[in-house]
Specification:
Layout (H helix, E strand, L loop, with lengths): L36 E7 L5 E3 L4 E11 L4 E10 L8 E3 L7 E4 L6 E11 H4 L7 E11 L4 E14 L1 E3 L2 E3 L8 E12 L4 E4 L4 E8 L6 E7 L5 E7 L4 E7 L8 E2 L3 E3 L3
């Protein structure tokens, strides 16, 4: 097994201080058969991490580390960029190692877990950081040998979005036209403001008074600066809302229903 020093990484560093891929494993992009292997890597319970301008969240990473000699310690890092040498974002709690528990039936296998804080204001300073990030993991075995792999899993960090709704007139006569307006905005990590999100599909939904189920009436596209506007016929008392399902870089959002009294 290749022996190497631990890699020091810090949040928002421009690059790793050294490659996290052992030389023997670079050809295949994974650990050699005699090194520690990593599996079952899960970030944030498998859910997207959605961040506004000042959001602070605790992120948990879980993984399994297997080594013929047993695992003494293991460290994860989440990074963004074309490769580790040119990473433009790194999230880690280094030097804190994960808590690893040896399997009672297999001393070569440990399940590990680590939680650390993510601060959007410090770690997400431009919009290019939205989307898929990679998970790197390093481990030390009982013989003080080290294995580090650059990509053993992925995580997705998204920009927070918000959609609003207003249905009018209120009240309205049955059969008359109801105009539903709103706006779709999202966190702009470049300008540190919330800005309109245009040319996005947004659903207009309706829930009849006394019901718990919303039905999609139509899908519209957000206009300039994220504006939303459409019309529908007044049929019965109920609630209108806009629903944005999200994109690869932006989280979903659902407006609170706006009640219209139909007479």
């Amino acid at each position: 097994m290749r022996i190497r020093p631990a890699v020091a990484v810090v949040s928002c560093a421009t690059a790793f201080s050294a490659s996290m891929i052992p030389a023997a494993a670079q050809a295949e992009g994974r650990a050699a058969s005699s090194d520690t292997t990593f599996s079952h890597v899960v970030v944030n319970g498998g859910k997207d991490v959605v961040l506004g301008l000042t959001t602070r969240k605790t992120i948990t990473i879980t993984w399994t580390a297997t080594d013929p000699d047993g695992v003494v310690a293991s460290w994860p890092a989440v990074w963004h960029g074309p490769n580790t040498d040119d990473a433009d974002g790194i999230l880690t709690s280094y030097p804190s190692a994960g808590t690893c528990t040896v399997s009672p039936t297999d001393p070569t296998t440990s399940t590990c877990k680590l939680s650390f804080g993510v601060d959007a204001a410090r770690s997400f300073r431009h919009n290019g950081l939205a989307g898929a990030w990679n998970v790197a993991i390093e481990a030390q075995d009982a013989n003080d040998d080290w294995t580090a792999i650059d990509v053993v899993g992925t995580a997705r960090f998204k920009r927070y979005a918000e959609v609003t709704v207003n249905a009018s007139p209120e009240p309205v006569r049955k059969g008359r036209t109801i105009t539903v307006t709103g706006k779709l905005t999202r966190a702009n990590w470049d300008s540190r403001t919330y800005t309109g999100y245009q040319n996005r599909s947004v659903q207009l939904q309706f829930r009849k008074k006394g019901s718990s189920t919303y039905t999609t009436l139509k899908t519209i596209t957000s206009g300039s600066h994220g504006t939303l506007k459409t019309t529908t016929k007044a049929r019965t008392d109920g609630y209108f809302r806009f629903v944005f399902t999200g994109t690869a870089t932006t989280g979903p959002s659902t407006a609170a229903g706006d009640f219209v009294d139909v007479r």
